Amino acid sequence: MEEGMPTVLITGCDSGLGEEFAIQYAARGYRVIATCLDPEKLSARHAFGSNVELTRLDVTDHAAVETLAKRLENSPIDILINNAGIPGPHPSLQETDAHLWRKMLEVNLIAPLIVSRAFVEHVARSDQKVIAFISSRMGSLSLNNTGMSYAYRSSKAGLNMIMKSLAIDLIPRQICVLSIHPGNVVPDCSGGLSIAASVERMREVINEAGPHQTGTFYNYNGQILPW
Question: In CATH, what is the architecture of 7-219?
Answer without folding.
Answer: 3-Layer(aba) Sandwich (3.40)
